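Per your request, structure below.
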């Protein structure tokens, strides 16, 4: 049996503001939950790097749009958003600019079942 096609999505959020660890809110008041954070190289690999190494850490964040209730337990401390900004603002070219002026590429904006998903990857310093 084939899966039903998801309804087409509109544009990604114009802005995402930090509300608490792992939780962002968009301009429509919808909450976005950080469900996964991928960091490369891994924390263990940092220790093996040579001093003065110029390798930049790659961060990819997976967010789902879902309601969050005040009584919802906080997320694990490892999601205390290493490297995530206090605000993302949508720019031309499928990118967000963070409060620290770093650019984040929209890797995916789609749906998983009925949940809207946004995947962002931090671009290397100096990317324009």
């Amino acid at each position: 049996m084939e899966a039903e096609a998801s309804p087409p999505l509109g544009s990604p959020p114009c802005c995402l503001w930090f509300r608490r660890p792992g939780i962002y809110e968009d301009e429509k008041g919808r909450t976005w939950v950080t469900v996964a954070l991928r960091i490369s190289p891994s924390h263990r690999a940092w220790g093996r790097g040579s001093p003065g190494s110029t390798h930049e850490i790659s961060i990819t964040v997976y967010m789902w749009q879902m309601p969050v209730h005040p009584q919802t337990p906080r997320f694990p401390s490892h999601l205390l958003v290493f490297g995530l900004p206090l605000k993302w603002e949508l720019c031309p070219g499928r990118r967000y600019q963070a409060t620290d002026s770093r650019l984040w590429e929209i890797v995916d904006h789609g749906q998983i079942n009925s949940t809207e998903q946004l995947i962002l990857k931090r671009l290397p310093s100096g990317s324009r």
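The radius of gyration is 16 Å.

Regards,
D.
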